[in-house]
Design goal:
Length: 387
Amino acid sequence: MLTGVLDLPWWGYVVYTLVTTHITIAAVTIYLHRHSAHRALDLHPLVSHFFRFWLWLTTGMVTKAWTAIHRKHHAKCETVDDPHSPQIFGIRKVLLEGAELYRVESANTATLERYGHGTPDDWIERNLYTRYNIYGIVVLFVLDFVLFGFIGLTVWAVQMMWIPLLAAGVINGIGHFWGYRNFQPGDASRNIVPWGILIGGEELHNNHHAYASSARLSNRWYEFDIGWLYIRILQMLGLADVKKVAPRLRFDTAKTHCDVATLQAVVTHRYEVLAKYAKSLRATCAREMRALRASAIRVDGSAWKRWLHLDTSALPETEREQRAQVLKASSRLATVYTMRDELAALWQRSTASKEQLVHQLEDWCRRAEASGIEALQVFSRQLRWYA
């Protein structure tokens, strides 16, 4: 059997493969995602160029193409124009053929021109990384073979499938299909697991969609974002400058009325507000649904939960009709769901002045506290504390 320059024990090949693929993951999450696509941090030119070179070597991905496709994903999320939504294409398609969806969209010149601004356009980008993007993975193929012989071909195959499987498949697919949600943005994003290690922190995908321009993807005390750890190390070495992180919610329990600070906090943390609303009113809705079933009114077991998380316009037509019937049958549920819609509409009224919005928020809180629904009353009092 032909061996290479290095003759390693079996675990040596495993360690080499895991280290190199993890560097690739770090390059994607730190350089392509947080730095290039969202401008959440600036990188020292040496670090930035190392990541560009490494991605050319290990993936053949072009910075402009990846950045443009990801920005379009955020701009058109869960619509027919989203390049890789499992809500549109189906989870199987995105999970197994995510790399093909990326390849198709990368050939769309309109996407690159519309969303690819601010990406590298220097001599080496034009004449090597973009023009000969396929050459990098060929160089890696030769390098792996020279170093390890025929087993290097297996190593290279794993390196080639790492990003298509974990990033294009798992994050774009499962990250919009299965997991838990801290926030309620107007899409289907999910946190896959609370410990972002294997995919560099990208596992915390719902957090990212709630605060897309944040350099830190972890948000709860139990969540861990290894990509943020690397960024902090680079920052301490003077090799990175963090521009934005997700704001922390603060409370002033002495407040009894809404003011401009309350409004600003509610708008800033709007996705968290809706998540807290859904969590606070879940038990109330469950009790009412049980009472309706006792009255022979049938409701899908998970539909009423979706109604707490989604705007009416985002529901399928059949569920809108079912929701309307339920609201007619239960005044308490009508109050819960209608006030949820009114709260979500508050930050969409861009033509109203701050004073008008403060008045509308205060009116919403007064009506919530006069509703007779205890959970809604408690939520309203806590909303006034936002500072």
